[in-house]
Specification:
Number of strands: 12
Order of helices and strands: HEEEEEEEEEHEEEH
Largest sheet: 8 strands, antiparallel
Distance between the termini: 23 Å
Number of helices: 3
Number of domains: 2
CATH architecture of the largest domain: Sandwich
Helix content: 10-25%
Strand content: 35-45%
Radius of gyration: 26 Å
Shape: elongated
């Protein structure tokens, strides 16, 4: 293959891959995007009083306890929002979506199911602020006493595709207390932000265009190739 043909082929491949790459994107919750909130009770003459939202909790503790002797009690749920607007025109290109939480096993109290992970079916009012306390109404899965310490994941592909089809800019989830138990997961403030991992393929995905340096390196490589080819020809003519 002659040098001009090599150059044209490399350029075409690079241009094609910049517009048709398959890959993965992580969308992490922002500091204002996760919060905890719940209610507290103080004695037999007290009702359940709202507590929170607490934006900046580290970690996000989800629990419920109640003392039948003193009538004191407390519970907390966690709320998260993730920006998905960048995939609004690329729903068909999405192959899978997983929600990742950093489970803190040392916070576990109780056995069996410790908390429920839920997706909000209608987050039309969501603005990325977890203080809105948009709770999930669709059960995604459970965190249990057998969940490992560290990152755990939940398949939320259909939920996110439905959100995008409905033209929601934000996906909202909550982790709700389950029984008189306790669990916790990492927060953005701990640099253990929960995140959505979106896998995609096709030409209409929001992938970054190669930087000018990429093209420069390719051209430099072709230039070096041209020099060697010229030297080879000169040596052959001697």
């Amino acid at each position: 293959m002659k040098l001009p043909q090599i150059f044209a082929t490399c350029l075409l491949v690079l241009l094609m891959t910049s517009n048709a790459m398959a890959g993965m994107m992580n969308i992490a919750v922002l500091a204002q995007g996760d919060a905890i909130a719940g209610k507290d009770r103080y004695g037999s003459f007290s009702g359940w009083e709202n507590s929170g939202p607490i934006v900046g909790a580290a970690p996000n503790s989800v629990y419920h306890w109640y003392d039948s002797y003193s009538y004191n009690g407390s519970y907390r749920n966690a709320f998260m929002q993730y920006e998905i607007a960048q995939f609004a025109e690329a729903v068909a290109s999405i192959t899978s979506v997983n929600l990742y939480l950093y489970n803190i096993a040392s916070a576990i109290v109780g056995t069996g199911n410790l908390g429920t992970v839920n997706h909000a079916s209608n987050p039309v009012a969501a603005t990325g602020q977890a203080s809105q306390l948009i709770g999930g109404n669709q059960l995604v899965g459970y965190v249990t006493d057998l969940s490992p310490d560290g990152w755990i994941s939940f398949d939320v592909t259909d939920y996110i595709k439905n959100d995008l089809t409905a033209e929601f800019n934000w996906a909202a989830f909550s982790v709700n207390q389950f029984g008189y138990k306790s669990m916790a997961f990492g927060s953005a403030e701990q640099e253990l932000a929960s995140y959505l991992q979106i896998n995609y393929t096709g030409a209409d995905t929001p992938v970054p265009t190669p930087e000018p340096a990429t093209f420069a390196l390719m051209l430099l490589g072709l230039g070096v190739l041209a020099v060697f080819k010229r030297k080879s020809c000169l040596n052959g003519n001697r």
